[in-house]
Amino acid sequence: MSSFMDTKIEFLKGVGPAKARLLNEELSIQTYHDLIHYFPFRYEDRSQFHTIDQIGPDSENVQIKGVLDRVEVVGGARKQRLTAVFRDPTGQIELIWFKGVKWMKSKLKLGIPYIVYGKPSLFQTKFSISHPEIEIMTPANEVGKKTMLPVYSTTEKLKRKFVDSKAIAKLQLELISTRGFSVVEIVDKAVLNEMNLVDLTTALRNIHFPTDALVKNKALERLKFDELFFIQLKIFREKSDQKEVHKGIIFQKSHLVHEFYEKHIPFELTGSQKQVIKEIYSDLQSGYQMNRLLQGDVGSGKTITAFVCMLIAIGSGFQTTIMAPTEILAIQHYQGLSEYCDKLGLTIRLITGSTKKSDRKKYLDELVSGEMNILVGTHALIENDVQFNRLGLAVIDEQHRFGVAQRAKLWQKNKHVYPHVLVMTATPIPRTLAMTLYGDLEVSTIRELPKGRKPIKTSHLYDSSRLKLFGFIQREIDLGRQVYIVYPLIEESSTLDYKDLMDGYESISRAFPKVPLSILHGRMKAKDKDFEMDRFVRGEAKIMVATTVIEVGVNVPNASVMVIENAERFGLSQLHQLRGRVGRGADQSYCILMTKKKISKEARARIGCMVATTDGFEIAEKDLELRGPGDLMGTQQSGLLDLKVADLTTDGVLLKRARLLAERIIADDPELTSPAHARMSRHLNKNQIATLKWSAIS
Length: 698
Ligand code: ADP
Ligand code: MG
Known about the structure:
Residues 471-625 form the Helicase C-terminal domain. By secondary structure, the protein is α/β, with parallel strands linked by helices. Among the domains are: 1-47 and 153-182, no CATH class; 58-144, CATH 2.40.50.140; 255-285 and 301-425, P-loop containing nucleotide triphosphate hydrolases (Rossmann fold, 3-Layer(aba) Sandwich); 457-613, P-loop containing nucleotide triphosphate hydrolases (Rossmann fold), CATH 3.40.50. A seven-stranded mixed beta sheet has the order 6-7-4-3-2-5-8. A seven-stranded parallel beta sheet has the order 12-13-11-14-15-10-16, sandwiched between helices. The protein has a six-stranded parallel beta sheet with strand order 17-22-21-18-20-19, with helices on both faces. The longest helix is centred in the N-terminal third of the chain and has 28 residues, at 213-240. Bound molecules: adenosine-5'-diphosphate (ADP) and magnesium ion.
């Protein structure tokens, strides 16, 4: 059934074939449905007024009423600008124009009331607004406009063709006013009532043209609910028919674990590690296939925990594998575990992209024959020719670096029955989020760090103290230690960030002419990256200048200093991950967060949190708290789920309600055959709901 919303966009008044092509190419808008789901990313709230004394360093756009006091042209002929003092009963602010100076000057009149709209910025101690919108106050606009104006993101190409935010707003208005405008409701009535949600037509109308913030929030809540609810519904429906399908191998108690505990383990396991091993062991005996997520802070000792579980599998005559996202990490696992394997008489091998052909062939033979007990590797080990004899347990380290397809392939490595799967991550996330992200995974958590770790000393320095920083780095290097210096490269394509990194590299080379440096960033070829990293791992390079590519998993115990440049630009969890690269050896380690003097309130809070604590879970909680609802970037994780409006870090309450509801509905009506669930059932069947399937093969 083709509905109104399936109509091609070119049939909308004001669009036509050329503009339709453009909208399609630039914004993937092909149909009415696509257009109406292209939401504004913010609004200009012109219904409210501010007073000048309310303006602060974190002010977004403000709308103020007042009069002009002084209007003058300043600066020489080349840098001419127009400045005006704008005053209300609470204070004054400067307005500045760099363009159209003469024309503006002729327009502005002293002494009559104006309405000004724009974003204040702070220069030294004074606030000003450049190129504000300004209009004479009239009885009509004095009370504020009746609506919030939607602002849409567009591309440079669209703007050149005059499809700017205003033009998109016009198209939305046109669509909404088209005769026959209708939206197929996807949530059944009882659910809307119970959750107190507006219907979809209202939500879509109001997300574009809300009359006020309350109306907008109601619309947004409905749209967020849809995203979160259908994911949950899908997860529960699949879960209900999965349990029987995936029978699991049952492992027996193993002498190997005993031997390892009694004779070889170099330290006492923490209580947390023991608890997690117990949880996993009970899965491994349950008769069902295990799909478990192991989360634990950086340095909490996930590897050895996983190794003990691998011994359980090996003790029952099965093979195991551990897959890491990078070659460096795979090598580190291989080297670390080899030591134990030698003592236990187990065969462990490493396969990566750079394994020699002849070695690879030999290993693959050992694998098929069952001679090999543990295979460590990168994604090279999921290639088709890698065939196990009896794979019993697959461990995946730092899972978020792998694609879903890569994981699924690993599952198929045992022909008879799916192997048990343990995925590990150092990104601590609160429980509800974990349940949504890894819908079908059980979650275990290592909460404590091994005893005797020296907490990393973290400090905040301003750019002006760079000499002091360099002195400190030199002293640590003289003591034989190594140093990371990390630059933000938020987007791999950002040329400006890239330049920052290269400038930094140059100034460090100049400051430390005799010290061998490594450099690492995403634009380098894989081979060069490995080479540079390897030099640092082996201790030849003393300073590693890098982007966040080093974020995950790298273990260089001799590195004792982590310097993070422009730290204000990093999120909390990222700062924490980076800091986790040091403090892995016996030495006291340091993390130094460099910023300019003036940073936003939020950035200051993030940095304050980093200085105050090294506990990853505490930091995760703080992170949730600090991210306002206005954080449109969302989380890295929600990117995986393809969420457009919901944000897993801030919509926890809604998520929980949606989850409980979905669980109850599926418990009552597993196949969604009841007429009361007809709309939701139809939507679920008709649409690809992106859930993350870690455990099953599609
Ligand atoms: P992560 O959880 O970040 O992967 P690792 O498994 O790499 O952490 O462990 C970090 C370091 O801590 C390793 O050198 C490991 O040998 C050590 N370690 C792990 N568990 C303990 C423990 N219970 N007591 C002391 N050291 C431990
Ligand atoms: Mg690790």
